[in-house]
Automatic annotation (TrEMBL), chain A:
Gene3D superfamilies: MetI-like. GO terms for cellular component: plasma membrane. Pfam families: BPD_transp_1, BPD_transp_1_N. CDD domains: TM_PBP2. It is found in: Cell membrane. It is a multi-pass membrane protein. This is ABC transporter permease. Belongs to the binding-protein-dependent transport system permease family. The chain crosses the membrane at residues 94-118, 130-156, 168-187, 226-255, 275-298. The keyword Membrane applies. The keyword rRNA processing does not apply. It comes from Paracoccus methylarcula.
Automatic annotation (TrEMBL), chain B:
It comes from Paracoccus methylarcula. Pfam families: ABC_tran (PF00005), oligo_HPY (PF08352). InterPro entries: AAA+_ATPase, ABC_Ni/Peptide_Import, ABC_transporter-like_ATP-bd, Oligopep_ABC_C, P-loop_NTPase. Keywords: ATP-binding, Cell membrane, Membrane, Nucleotide-binding, Transport. It is a peripheral membrane protein. The keyword Acetylation does not apply. One of its GO terms (molecular function) is ATP binding. Transmembrane segments: none annotated. One of its GO terms (biological process) is transmembrane transport. Belongs to the ABC transporter superfamily. This is ABC transporter ATP-binding protein.
Length: 305, 333
């Protein structure tokens, strides 16, 4: 198990390094960064001065090494727009995004897994139908529309919840539901399919033949095997929620990292975009790594992989 | 044999609803089994042997309909027993060994956990005691380095070892009845004999009643006290093993026994015996003898109700229109 973890950790570091290089090179793909900083009215002399000031005249690999070394110390440079350290900007915004992401994935898991399990135990029952309806609706409904409906009903009509902002926990209820409901259908259907398959397995019959009570058969013997693909999916969803919650963050005016990314792209604020891409990618890598470790704990056959 | 049987089954019937109508998979099974006895249920694939064993354990899929006049396990009426009562019997007093050793163990838990679980479910023992018992049984089923096996996972063991683990698991609580459903079918031929020998030795040592389901008559001849021959969901002939092999009465039983090649007597390269034809469909109403279309003794009466004949007193029973299984001239004339 320890060997497996070390191996995966090494792999994760390699992926992280690759991603850091790609996100660094984005700076150069987007055109001459010196022109972007100087603005359209600048003359050639100004641009040359900026090029030297920011070190754009050095070889690219040297610049990358420099940037990476700084990034390792959480120094991502200055934001062109805010004239503040990028690291501080992201740290401030990330707390909102993290809160939302964690609440969203918990909401998705806590609704999807029990529903999926019940639907698998009683296929074609009323609960199975309801679960199917909820998942189809969740997949078909765009997040922005669902978010607006919630605002209309719970903020405007009923006045129970605040419509925008992030100053109290009540502000996070509707965004959590919208974001979580987006991830819920896939998790639920994977749980249901996994449980259905596992429940017809021979070892489930063995567990019953031993005289194990039904609850133990379902949760100890079946769910542990059925949940394995769900763990991998949830890790990807979690990464997505942190990076891709831009829509939800804009609707509810939560100024999170997703919203910052969207703003910074518009403003050509490359150091911020670069750093955000790296941070989001690192989240994916960390969650995938955690999912791999959790899966290896759940399924011993994966430990040799 | 004045002692009460440990398992008594009367008129066990299993029906499976299918898209094409009701499938009458098992019809009117009767048998008694005493302590220490081995009953072999023989018959070809699809004759309902496995379903019968699952029905006795109460492990049938919910859609299969079970009915019987009686299923009595040592004074407990299994037809009326609550789920809780059945659960306390399963694994503790009646155990089952399945056909598929490769998939019958949970891949997520160690051998030790799965063995100990059986004991922990039914007895008030500590984990350490349960593990000690697991080691004891692994040694009993011939697994070397038993202690270190406890922390292994099923995927680290071969099929033969896994089946030994399954046998050990079934014996954890010293059951009075063990049902083995073709326990050696999925194994290599060389391993088959070992596993079977082991099972029979343990059954004798622990004085358990055993139902051994098989389609291997060679096995039956070696281990059975009683034989029940099953064809298309019916027991066509039941009786003491010795009588069945000495004087097989039902045409199907005779056909089966003729299929066994005998070393020295069957010529090299000679055609092996076969029974022509295929098993009838059991969907819809099933009348008469299910074997009649393949039977060389068939007469017109075979399409109607089939009487039960008793040979040699009470123990040897035959379900056939012919009182001794043979067509006589006056019947056809």
């Amino acid at each position: 198990m320890l060997r497996f973890i070390l191996k995966r950790l090494g792999l994760a570091l390699l992926v992280a390094l690759t991603v850091s290089f790609i996100s660094f090179s984005l700076l150069f793909l987007a055109g001459d960064p010196a022109i972007a900083i100087a603005g359209e009215s600048a003359n050639a002399k100004d641009i040359q001065a900026i090029r030297e000031l920011y070190g754009f005249d050095r070889p690219m690999l040297v610049q990358y090494a420099d940037w990476l070394w700084n990034a390792l110390r959480f120094d991502f440079g200055q934001s062109y727009y805010f004239k503040l350290p990028v690291a501080d900007l992201i740290a401030e915004r990330l707390s909102v995004t993290m809160t939302l992401g964690v609440c969203g994935i918990l909401f998705a898991l806590l609704t999807a897994v029990p529903l999926g399990v019940i639907a698998a135990i009683r296929p074609n029952s009323l609960i199975d139908r309801i679960a199917l309806f909820l998942s189809v609706a969740g997949q078909a409904m765009p997040s922005f529309w669902f978010g607006l409906i919630l605002i209309v009903v719970f903020a405007i009509q009923l006045g129970w919840l605040p419509a925008s902002g992030a100053s109290s926990w009540q502000h996070f209820i509707m965004p959590t539901v919208v974001l979580g409901y987006y991830a819920m259908p896939a998790i639920m259907r994977l749980t249901r399919a996994g449980m259905l398959e596992v429940l017809s397995a021979d070892y489930i019959r063995t567990a019953r033949a031993k005289g194990a009570p039904e609850g133990r058969v379902l949760f100890k013997h079946a769910l542990r095997n059925a949940i394995i693909p769900v763990v991998s999916l949830a890790a990807v969803q979690m990464g997505f929620m942190l990076g891709g919650s831009i829509v939800v963050e804009s609707i509810f005016a939560l100024h999170g990292a997703g919203y910052l990314a969207w703003e910074s792209i518009g403003r050509n604020d490359l150091p911020t975009v670069q750093a955000l891409i790296l941070v989001f990618a690192l989240f994916y890598i960390v969650f995938t790594f955690l999912a791999d470790v959790l899966n290896a704990w759940l399924d011993p056959r994966m430990r040799s992989a | 044999m004045t002692e009460d049987p440990i398992l008594s089954v009367r008129d066990l019937t299993l029906d499976i609803p299918t898209a094409g109508g009701m499938l009458h998979a098992v019809r009117g099974i009767d048998f008694d089994l005493h302590r220490g006895e081995t009953l072999c249920i023989v018959g070809e694939s699809g004759s309902g042997k496995s379903l019968t064993s699952l029905a006795l354990m109460g492990l049938l899929a919910p859609k299969i309909q079970r009915s019987a006049a009686r299923i009595d396990f040592d004074g407990t009426d299994l037809l009326k027993a609550s789920r809780r009562q059945l659960r306390h019997l399963r694994g503790a007093r009646m155990s089952m060994i399945f056909q598929e050793p490769m998939t019958s163990l949970n891949p997520a838990y160690t051998i030790g956990d799965q063995l100990a679980e059986t004991l922990l479910l039914h007895r008030k023992v500590s984990r350490a005691q349960a593990r000690a018992r697991a080691v004891e049984l692994l040694e009993k089923v011939g697994i070397t380095a038993a202690e270190s096996r406890l922390s292994q996972f099923p995927h680290q063991l071969s099929g033969g070892l896994r089946q030994r683990v399954m046998i050990a698991m079934a014996l954890m609580c010293e059951p009075e009845l063990i049902i083995a459903d073709e326990p050696t079918t999925a194994l290599d031929v060389t391993i088959q004999a070992q596993i079977l020998r082991l099972l029979v030795d343990l059954q004798r040592e622990m004085n358990m009643a055993m139902i051994l389901i098989t389609h291997d008559l060679g096995v039956v001849a070696r281990v059975a006290d009683k034989v029940a021959v099953m064809y298309a969901g019916e027991l066509v002939e039941t009786g003491p093993a010795e009588a069945i092999f000495r004087q097989p009465a039902h045409p199907y039983t005779r056909g089966l026994i003729n299929c066994i090649p005998v070393p020295g007597r069957t010529e090299r390269g000679a055609r092996l015996g076969t029974i022509p034809g295929i098993v009838p469909s059991l969907v819809g109403e099933v009348t008469g003898c299910p074997f009649r279309r393949r039977c060389d003794q068939a007469v017109e009466a075979c399409a109607h109700a089939i009487p039960l004949h008793r040979l040699d007193g009470d123990t040897h029973q035959l379900r056939c229109v012919h009182p001794d299984g043979h067509r006589h001239e006056e019947v056809t004339a």
